[in-house]
Design a protein that fits this description.
heterodimer; A: 212 residues; alpha+beta; Alpha-Beta Plaits; 5-stranded antiparallel beta sheet; 4-stranded antiparallel beta sheet; 6 helices; 9 strands; 26% helix; B: 582 residues; Rossmann fold; 3 domains; 6-stranded parallel beta sheet
């Protein structure tokens, strides 16, 4: 998890300097314009969003954004706080890839003749765990769910066989160490904030920081 | 029978609706403003906000509307009002150009945490997205420069949105809020419920419950410090924590220096007030930032104009940072102890845990540096011997006349730095300046607002010849509404701060800083504002006295030396201890 012990921070700074892939999870009210408010936090700093998904969460009326960027820990931490500062944002988490379960869905349109005639294509599809979504005379659409490398690998493999169209969804991610947002929301709805409402990022709380 | 029943029904209905209100969206908006305690609105009418102005016609006894001459003037005036009074400033503007003219003021209020509620008219909801006359995408244009914004298309939303707007604008770290109301919602007739103020939004935490662990860690560091140093910013003023801050400073005996936004939170003359931080701040506070062992930052955000080069900033010190905005802690300077909370709450807790102390030797160091600055910079500036007048001596004279009780509103540039450096302040909310954004043209309209926000105070707008020419139209507002603002133009016939940089860093290539001016005295007089000009030292004090003692507004132009520079200076890209005295 993205933990931080501020008192010991200076000695471990080197750990946080390199850029890597982070998945930012935002719980927010479902309101018009909020996507723009969040997006400009990145564009203001000239940071490219690699992948962005918005979807309902486990709670009615609360939306969940998954945002993937390549940045250093320090940059991501500051971004997360800027996002969380927005009035309609309830909570922001950021995680490295080993802290989440994630998937992307890819669709591939290929010529049905090609598949029918060329056994290797069929084998490729089996090998990559693809499933047929639509089969028509002229084309077939396959779907693959997986990590970026997996969906990318099939694109490469299909290139020689008339890959007519390809599209991939944004990343959806579940945080391994998360108990969901139901309990958290109760704290947010309380008129008087309790001590535990927001994890104290500035204290030595080890693994509890940025976890739920 | 029927009649009797009807009567009963009518009375019954009346009793039920005693707290409800039937009327238009515009009326319910104005009722809401009154519920929120608003008395003064700065604004400018136009097509898309006409229903609100029509309703306003009947509210003249409850809501004073100041007709400005440009929406930018309106929003700066509201900023001045908010800063002087501690209340929320309210602005009305129409759609399209009216709304876009607010943008500079919104950006200024956002970066300087000024609570504002701006109401803009918008085209009818059914015309949104059709490029209708005076339609502009105000919500998206203002998103990065507002704390929150919202477009109302149905009058039934107005009360809740207005209540949220006021709550958001003034709670937590304050900021500007904009509500865009389509014309149909302004004229829509509804039966509205009672107005309820907002005190909670589930997705918004204005301040956390203070965790005592923060306070204990901070107190431990402070108690162990040999050379502690306090930096304070506007957070102390915004948190209305001046008394709590003073108690903390006095108990710990720690020297305290201010950012220009925090100036006046404790009086200039307080023995532990060691002066100004940053690029044109005082010598001691800058140099000793790099000698202290514990740096205690309170309600300030380590702006680059305060820190200079970050990798040469207070590297030797442990940092304690108190702030209400968690995004500020660890943003520019890493805090060893971050105390997240409202300083009105955190400071008393901290004061309880810290030891009484007197850091006499350490304080003496500040005095030593101060003496050097007095000898090399301050005395020549305040008591010049040359023929040309200096901005500093003008400020010295103001101090002598007002004794530190005036509200000083400045524009941006050399005069601003000189005013912040040399003006004496006995009271909080007395130094009103555009700190974060550096908005030229801020001074005159902000002074108008400040006068409404602090009607019993002498309000002096100190403005350069360049900045004055950015918003001079607001002389019309002064003329019409009689705001007794004292306008002091310090005219050096240059865009002085840019010229200073060109002299120091661009080989004296004075590129487009040579600005000419109209006859300011004649200009003021054309607005029926009394005015005078001084170009000799012998007449300066008397002229200032005339201005300050004059009933009503007054403009005084003082001709100062053309190529005077503001020192000390931390050149951009240098560390604070590399500050230059000349």
């Amino acid at each position: 998890m993205s933990t931080e012990n501020t008192l010991e921070y200076k000695t471990t700074k080197a750990d946080f300097e390199g850029k890597q892939e982070y998945t930012i999870t935002v719980y927010a009210e479902n309101r018009i314009g909020l996507l723009n408010r969040i997006a400009i936090i990145f564009s203001k700093r000239k940071i490219n969003i690699e992948s962005l998904n918005t979807s309902p969460s486990e709670i009615d009326g609360i939306h969940r954004f998954n945002i993937v960027i390549q940045e250093s820990y320090e940059v991501v931490r500051k971004l997360a706080r800027q996002i969380e500062k927005q009035i309609e944002v309830l909570k922001v988490y950021f995680n490295t890839n080993d802290e989440i379960i994630w998937q992307e869905l890819a669709l591939y349109k290929v010529s049905t003749d090609e598949i029918a005639e060329r056994v290797t294509v069929e084998r490729l599809l089996r090998q990559y765990g693809a499933s047929a979504v639509v089969i028509r005379k002229d084309y077939t659409v396959f779907a693959v769910t997986g990590h970026r490398e997996e969906t990318d690998a099939l694109v490469k493999a299909l290139e020689p066989y008339e890959l007519i169209e390809f599209v991939r969804s944004a990343r959806v991610a579940i945080i391994k160490d998360s108990a969901g947002f139901h309990e958290k929301l109760k704290e947010f709805e309380a008129v008087e904030p309790g001590e535990e409402l927001v994890e104290n990022e500035f204290l030595d709380k080890g693994q509890k920081i940025f976890t739920m | 029978m029927e009649t009797a029943q009807e009567t009963i029904q009518q009375t019954g209905a009346k009793a039920e609706t005693s707290k409800t209100f039937k009327g238009t969206g515009s009326q319910v908006l104005l009722n809401g403003l009154i519920e929120e305690g608003v008395t003064t609105i700065f604004g400018y009418p136009g097509g898309a906000i006409m229903p609100i102005y029509d309703a306003l016609y009947d509210y003249a006894d409850k809501l004073e509307h100041i007709l400005v001459r440009h929406e930018q003037g309106g929003i700066h005036a509201a900023q001045g009002f908010a800063r002087a009074s501690g209340e929320v400033g309210v602005v009305f503007a129409t759609s399209g150009p009216g709304a876009t003219n607010l943008v500079t003021g919104l950006a200024d209020a956002q970066i300087d945490s000024t609570p504002l509620v701006c109401i803009t008219g918008q085209v009818f909801a059914h015309l949104l997205g059709t490029d209708a006359f005076q339609e502009t995408d105000v919500i998206n244009i203002t998103t990065p420069v507002t704390k929150w914004n919202y477009q109302v298309t149905d009058a039934k939303e107005i009360q809740e949105v207005l209540a949220k707007a006021f709550y958001i604008a003034k709670s937590g770290r304050p900021g500007p809020v904009l509500i865009d109301i389509t014309k149909n919602a302004q004229i829509q007739v509804e039966e509205f419920p009672e107005y309820i103020k907002c005190n909670h939004i589930r997705s918004y935490l204005p301040k956390p419950k203070v965790r005592i662990e923060y306070i204990e860690q901070a107190a431990e560091l402070i108690n162990s410090a040999k050379k502690p140093f306090i930096l304070f910013g506007q957070g102390v003023i915004l948190g209305k924590a001046e008394q709590e801050f003073k108690a903390f400073v006095e108990k710990t005996g720690i020297p305290a220096a201010w950012t220009i936004m925090g100036e006046g939170a404790i009086p200039t003359s307080h023995p532990l007030n060691v002066g100004m931080l940053g690029m044109h701040g005082n010598y001691g506070p800058n140099v000793l930032t790099n000698e202290c062992d514990v740096l205690i930052a309170i309600g300030m955000r380590f702006d680059d104009r305060v820190t200079g080069r970050l990798d040469k900033y207070a590297k030797q010190a442990k940092v304690v940072h108190l702030d209400i905005d968690p995004a500020e802690i660890d943003k520019n300077v890493k805090a060893d102890v971050g105390v997240w909370g409202d300083c009105k709450e955190t400071l008393p807790l901290l004061t309880n845990l810290v030891n009484e102390n007197k850091h006499e030797d350490w304080l003496a160091k500040f005095k030593e540096y101060n003496q050097q600055e007095i000898d090399q910079v301050i005395t020549p500036e305040l008591y010049p011997t040359g023929d040309e007048m200096t901005m500093g001596e003008v400020l010295r004279n103001i101090n002598e006349i007002c004794g530190g009780d005036a509200v000083i509103v400045t524009d941006v540039g050399q005069h601003q730095m000189v005013a912040c450096r040399y003006a004496k302040f006995n009271n909080t909310r007395s130094n009103i300046t555009s700190g974060g954004l550096g908005t030229m043209g801020f001074g005159l309209p902000a002074a108008i607002g400040a006068k409404y926000g602090a009607p019993d105070k002498t309000v002096i707008a100190i403005i350069g010849d360049g900045g004055f020419q950015m918003t001079p139209q607001e002389l019309g507002t002064i003329m019409q509404f009689g705001a007794a603002v004292k306008i002091l133009i310090l005219n050096n016939r240059f865009l002085g701060m840019v010229r200073q940089w060109q002299q120091l860093f661009h080989d004296k290539r004075y590129s487009f800083v040579n600005i000419t001016s109209p006859d300011f005295v004649a200009l003021a007089k054309s607005y029926y504002i009394e005015a005078a000009k001084v170009d000799e030292r012998a007449n300066l004090k008397a002229a200032l006295e005339t201005m300050i003692n004059h009933e009503g507004s007054y403009l005084l132009e003082v001709m100062v030396g053309r190529e005077n520079n503001v020192f000390p200076m931390v050149p951009q890209g240098m560390g604070v201890s590399e500050i230059r005295l000349k």
